[in-house]
């Protein structure tokens, strides 16, 4: 891109993109999609919406352009990609939005497991039988989405962008707790509108590198560039009082963020119309000491039972597993086969019982 | 379409019976009908739409195709509210030109799809009432179809139907192109001629059963040689 060459930005972003970003994010570099943000003077700006009743934004991180408030009201069809402009009078919509889902996530000794169905429904019609409800945000953070699919997809993208900027500015990845807080604060101006996002952020935090950097012992770049928790532990032992606090800050972490303002930490969450059915399976099986195989099978069973009973969940199941090495994805499985297998085994036990009588 | 929204509390259809006191407001939206369809193949993509523009019980025009050529490798099909379709295509054309001037290259199909998603979402609270489907070739020359909802959620598909007859066409495409719910059938990849014939048959069926679809069918076939257009007449009643 011509202007990027002038500004010498392209190669810096590409190098770190290759190291950090995981594959399969909409099939393109995140940096290039916000082209105006890259070569305008406001490289580090964070576009914020301004409702008519607000004079200044409640969001304070990053640098806010002072003329944004007057700009956004007059130029509703501005060519710059900005966050949505909230109109004063809500207009009744002639079409339904996509809703209805089953997503779940839980923490165990092997990391965090996230699972979701793949049906995207629009008041009675299945708009998409193969949608992606678990979106990777960066190499060690994955988010499940529930609510309106457009809202979830776009806000996840905005969150990825902000986390990347944080990483570039501060030299370390933001923790899951921080990312959840960021998302919650970004959604707060839209409280009361019809925005509907209910996401769980599942991540693996790695704080050991950054603490030592703050103490001036190692550079920050190591924490940024490596996925490994392979930093030497010698300094831990000398800092006994804060060692326990540090240990609780790193490792698997799970947060639930909702567009009505909730932000909760937990070890097990299920969100969506099929969540009651999923909870019943998860509550009886999930514990800290599960193996990866056991955890996968419980998550799969929970989604299967939810799709069985909930009309708005169905089709396939996606499972993501987040560990200290990053996230891995299990191949998508069509639950139709499972239904037939179960029917067959029930028929066989029924016949066996009949024979015994 | 028959859904619970069309019925009032007494069980009667809202459009034909009195279902209780209702407030009338000016609605900035209108529904102009039309169906759009896109299919992606190994090295081609097809975007097809009918050409009827209707509103309520009237037909405004029999020659209003809903396929818009964006670049040499990308075609956009949009149906829904015609006013928003026109404005949206104008905005997309302007953004394409801006990109071309500042980056000295044409936008790829994937980039157009991502841009359209942000354009649609920028109007999250007063949306464009348009169902979009982009069909084109990706950077590797393979066919790509991107389908959108009115507020910008999108994903890449192999085939997608949108618009008034989408609920009728999508299951047919699932069966014929996706081979869903068919046992013991060999999954043959779709050739261009077979795909064009399928699209024609599918629209003829749609025109039979959907009142907003008919008049003529415009097919745009995108290959690396360029974009070829065909016009086929449909039922005019």
UniProtKB/TrEMBL annotation, chain B:
A Pfam family matched in the record: Proteasome
Subcellular location: Cytoplasm; Nucleus
Keyword Nucleus: yes
InterPro entries to which the protein is assigned, alphabetical: Ntn_hydrolases_N, Proteasome_bsu_CS, Proteasome_sua/b, Proteasome_suB-type
PROSITE patterns: PROTEASOME_BETA_1, PROTEASOME_BETA_2
Keyword Cell membrane: no
Keywords, ordered alphabetically: Cytoplasm, Nucleus, Proteasome
GO CC annotations on file: cytoplasm; nucleus; proteasome core complex
GO BP term, pick one: cellular response to ethanol
Domain of life of the native organism: Eukaryota
General function of this protein: Component of the proteasome, a multicatalytic proteinase complex which is characterized by its ability to cleave peptides with Arg, Phe, Tyr, Leu, and Glu adjacent to the leaving group at neutral or slightly basic pH. The proteasome has an ATP-dependent proteolytic activity.
Family: Belongs to the peptidase T1B family.
Quaternary structure and interacting proteins, as annotated: Component of the proteasome complex.
Name of the protein in its database record: Proteasome subunit beta
């Amino acid at each position: 891109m011509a202007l990027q060459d002038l500004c010498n930005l392209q190669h810096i972003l590409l190098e770190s993109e290759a190291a950090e970003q995981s594959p399969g994010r909409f099939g393109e570099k995140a940096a290039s999609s916000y082209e105006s943000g890259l070569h305008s003077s406001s490289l580090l700006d964070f576009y914020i919406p301004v409702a008519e009743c607000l004079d200044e934004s409640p969001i304070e991180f990053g640098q806010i352009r002072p003329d944004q408030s007057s700009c956004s009201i007059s130029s509703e069809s501005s060519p710059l990609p900005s966050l949505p402009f909230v109109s004063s009078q809500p207009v009744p919509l002639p079409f339904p939005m996509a809703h209805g889902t089953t997503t779940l996530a839980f923490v165990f000794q092997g990391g965090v497991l996230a699972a979701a169905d793949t049906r995207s429904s629009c008041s009675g019609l299945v708009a998409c039988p193969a949608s992606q409800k678990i979106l990777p945000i960066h190499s060690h953070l994955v988010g499940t989405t529930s609510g309106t699919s457009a809202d979830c997809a776009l806000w996840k993208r905005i969150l990825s962008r902000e986390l990347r900027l944080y990483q570039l500015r501060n030299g370390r990845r933001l923790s899951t707790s921080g990312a959840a807080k960021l998302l919650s604060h970004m959604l707060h101006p839209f409280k009361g509108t019809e925005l509907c996002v209910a996401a769980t952020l599942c991540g693996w935090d790695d704080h050991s590198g950054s603490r030592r950097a703050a103490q001036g012992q190692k550079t920050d770049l190591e924490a940024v560039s490596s996925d490994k928790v392979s930093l030497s532990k010698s300094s831990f032992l000398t800092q006994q009082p804060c060692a326990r606090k540090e240990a609780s800050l790193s490792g698997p972490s799970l947060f639930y963020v909702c567009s009505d303002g909730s932000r909760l930490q937990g070890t097990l969450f299920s969100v969506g119309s099929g969540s009651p059915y999923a909870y019943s399976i998860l509550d009886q099986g999930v514990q800290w000491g599960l193996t990866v195989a056991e955890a996968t099978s419980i998550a799969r069973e929970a989604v299967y039972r939810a799709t069985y009973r909930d009309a708005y969940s169905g089709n396939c199941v996606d499972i993501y597993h987040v560990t200290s090495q990053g996230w891995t994805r299990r191949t998508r499985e069509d639950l139709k086969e499972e239904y037939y297998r179960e029917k067959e085994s029930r028929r066989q036990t029924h016949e066996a019982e009949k024979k015994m009588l | 379409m028959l859904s619970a929204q069309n019925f009032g509390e007494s069980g009667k259809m809202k459009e034909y019976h009195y279902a209780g006191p209702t407030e009338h407001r000016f609605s900035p939206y209108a529904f102009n009908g039309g169906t759009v369809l896109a299919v992606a193949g190994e090295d081609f993509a097809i975007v097809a739409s009918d050409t009827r523009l209707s509103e309520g019980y009237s037909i405004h025009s029999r020659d209003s195709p809903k396929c818009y050529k964006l670049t040499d490798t990308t075609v956009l099909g949009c149906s829904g509210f015609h006013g928003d379709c026109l404005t949206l295509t104008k905005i997309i054309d302007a953004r394409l030109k801006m990109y071309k001037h500042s980056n000295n290259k044409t936008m790829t199909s994937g980039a157009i799809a991502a841009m359209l998603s942000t354009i649609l979402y920028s109007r999250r609270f007063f949306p464009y009432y348009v169902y979009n489907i982009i069909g084109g070739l990706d950077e590797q020359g393979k066919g790509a179809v991107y389908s959108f909802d009115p507020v910008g959620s999108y994903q890449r598909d192999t085939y997608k139907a949108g618009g008034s007859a989408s609920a009728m066409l999508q299951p047919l495409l699932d069966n014929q192109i996706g081979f869903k719910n068919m046992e013991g059938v060999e999954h043959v990849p779709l050739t261009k001629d077979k795909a064009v014939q399928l699209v024609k048959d599918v629209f003829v069926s749609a025109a039979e059963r959907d009142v907003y679809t008919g008049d003529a069918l415009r097919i745009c076939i995108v290959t690396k040689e360029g974009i070829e257009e065909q016009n086929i007449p449909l039922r005019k009643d």
